Amino acid sequence: MNEQRTQAYLNLINQLLSCNNGDEPRILQKNQELLDRGLVEVMVAVAQQYGNAGRENEARWLLNMAQQLAEALGLFDSEPSSISTGTFDQMPYTVYVLLYNVGTDNEGIHTISVDDNHKILLFESQEDAATFARQLGEQNFPVPSVEAMKAEEIFLFCHQLGHNWEFVPKGKTITPPSQRVENETPKKIKPEDYQVFLDNVLQLSSLIDKNRFNPEAVYTFCQNNLDKLDENFGEFLYQWATNIFSNLHPQKAQFTAAVVLMFGNLINEFPFGSLKNNLEISIKAYQAALIVYHPKTFPVYWAMTQMNMGNVYAKRIEGKKTENIEKAINSFQEALKIYTLDAFPYEYARVQHNMSNVYIERIKGDKAENIKTAIDCCKKALKVRTFEAFPREWANTHIHLVNAYLQTTNLEIIEQKKKENIEIAIGYCENSLIVYNIESFPKEWAKVQNNLGNVYLQRIKGEKEENVEQSINYFLESLRVYKINTFPNEWARGQFNLGGAYLERIKEKKRENLEKAIFYLRESFKVYIYNNFPYEWADSYINLGKAYFERIEGKKTDNLEIAISCFEEALKVYNVDNFPDSFAKIQKNLGTTYRNRIEGDKAKNLEFAIDCYQQALKIYDFKNLPLNWAGVQVDLAEVYIDRIEENKAENLEIAIACCQASLQVVNSDNFPIHWAKTQNTLGNVYQARIKGDKAENLEIAITCFEAALKIYTIERERFAHEWAMSQMNLGNVYHDRIKGEKAENQEKAIDCFKASLELVKPDDFPLEFAMLQNNLGSAYRNRIRGEKADNLEKAISAYQEALKVFTFDAFPQQWAATQNNLANAYSNRIRGDKAENIKQAVMCYQNALQGYETAGDFLNAAEMGLTLGKVKVDRGEWYQGLAYLEKSLKIYRQFDDLKSRADTIYQIAHTHHLIGNHEKASIYYRDALRFYEYLKHDRGVAFCKASLGRLMLQIGFVEKAEELLKEATFIFKELNNEQEIAKIAEVLNCLAKIKEKQAV
């Protein structure tokens, strides 16, 4: 490209960048001779320079223009995809792509090849990209990593390599092309091809049995014939064996059965192809061998085959896990009929050792009994596997004992017993390390490190913070041995465990810990794909859902949606029939996520949450799983506190009943932490309670929160967040308290909020920090002690701190509530210009109204409309105020909040009164009066009668006016409202003078 033409391109680019919007087509038309590939390349180069210089808007504009020109000039190899939603400038700033071998010299980007053309997929959603990556893994392709990249960087990359790109919007389903082809035209293997493969593989296996051949030869042959190892080959093998064994000489049949058994052992460990198919083939091989191996004629071979088959059933993917575990137990028990302690002590111990793990995972039967049986199996194995005779096996069985004792932490046993069991587990791990060191037994050493990580993560004794750090160190130690290339399954388990540990981590910033948790859990998906590791895949999704639920980075709305999708993915594996316990746990997590969901209708989300908890309670019943049952009762109570549908007062009574149900199971001695959580929730219910005496309800709430704090204070470091939240709740009650001295109550509220803020920092707990600042602002706004002006400034400052977290986009509901509080503070502000303060207040009220409407919280929106209406009317903006009031009334008519409806009708009447619409004012006053009388709301009745009396006087109905005003005075005397009595007295005096004049 010559210098002169390059300069011409640059001049044209400058013209385009500096022209008025809409002039670009005219400029391009005038410079048609420059519209070619060279211009596109220079545009891309200039865009890259601008991007590096931080001029990103210009860079994106140029890249978009380059893309449009390239398409118009036909420079792309293929037409834009139907998946693409538009031009480059319509894409998000960040997209997600799939990369292979990240961080290595062989790092590369995933492309789709269609007719020799390459396209790169640009995903809007990280979740969609991860799903596509998983689908690739299910086809036995290497699983790529999902990486976030700037859209312009990818566009430059595509242009430089001549690749096209496709933008995949969030929620758009896209399937790898090769999968579509495979699904449409599955390759069918002919029986003769199976037979040739079987003959060859059995020949190679027979050589192994004679110690004349390396087993790798079998694996190499199988790897070259992966298509034969499909879902049908196992049945073909079994049918072949059934036919041939009946025709063979017994000695030849025995030899062939031994070869088939050997092949079953080999294919069980084969690392390639479909793990599901390999395990099925292994089972069929063992079943084929058992045609020859009868317990009476070949007892040892029969027992060996049963033991091996038990091991395969224990990890089988096909079929129901419940049934597979029962089959595994049955096979082990069959083996033990021959492998007795006296006759075959070593094999007896081996079966007991293997059976212990199966009982740990058993779904049928009582969980506690299963764990007890698992521990008994280990102890039986250790009668043979002594440290002196079999040190390695002794150590390995101690690892199984660790797993069994760890499972007791999930049982409904008292905290002290859990504490003891975990310490026992640590002792068993340390015993194992007497034998296992990293030099001699690296794999076993790494396994113990992994177990120690799990034990310390659940440890109760010691400082929680240090235990989690120890846990992370142990998991990282295990990864010194477990590499993805050599031990992929164990490596993935290490990634999963690290993800779980970072979820629990206390040290460092919570924001960063959660990002690390998400990273490690996503890493596990490189190995854990749905088809080969469904349970591990589902477990990773459960923890990923928990991480996104708590996530601080990104939009809270999006994080909660991702959390829901993660839990729903896990339910694809853990259904209610086969995995009731896991199903219930997921439903519990889903319920909590829906309870906090921002997207969608709030009322419906809460109903979804209730339904999820009810689903969990179908599994967690009071008789069999009382502690889990009690936990879900508390969760239900928290939803009923917030519930929008049905009657509010009744919902709160249901919440109390749920808490009281929980307290049938937990008390401060047996389950102190569960008891404290129940007390905290019960306090929230009583604070919000409508029925009963309000003052008494608040006293009960204080008692509940103080009870919770007694427990949390004992282990404040371990339960710092719970302690802080109980302090906040206690502060809320003192803020609202009726009994006691008002000034003292406000001081206690402020002290509680400040104490909580010592632990709750914005980086670690942004939502809780914002809630506390909002509540602290309200406490200062209502404070009696100290200078009123200073208190209001502190209130405004606290609200503004809260709004740094509660933004309109992320938290419209909380943003609206804080804007409302800020408006109230500005309305009463002493410092600053009064008119400016009122202007700020009105703006905040309008913000609050917008936030509530966006969040779908129509009742609060109506309340805000009522407030705004009153403010506008007070400022003389009658018609604007009337519009807000009438809009609120439309909403209140859809709900059963009759008091708010009456207040709104009264304000509409008052506004018409001011405008001079006397007839309408009279109608609305009388409507409001009817509601107040029905509600027996004396204050409302008094104000209605007083206002209606003044209106009657204005329009000439003197006697009626006098009657209404006297009735209002009587009620105000009952209410000790001297101010209103004085106002009416003035009117009555005027009225008396009018009557005197009329008499004269």
UniProtKB/TrEMBL annotation:
Keywords: Repeat, TPR repeat. SMART domains: SEL1, TPR. InterPro entries: DUF3110, Sel1-like, TPR-like_helical_dom_sf, TPR_rpt. Pfam families: DUF3110, Sel1, TPR_12. This is DUF3110 domain-containing protein. The lineage of its organism: Bacteria, Bacillati, Cyanobacteriota, Cyanophyceae, Oscillatoriophycideae.
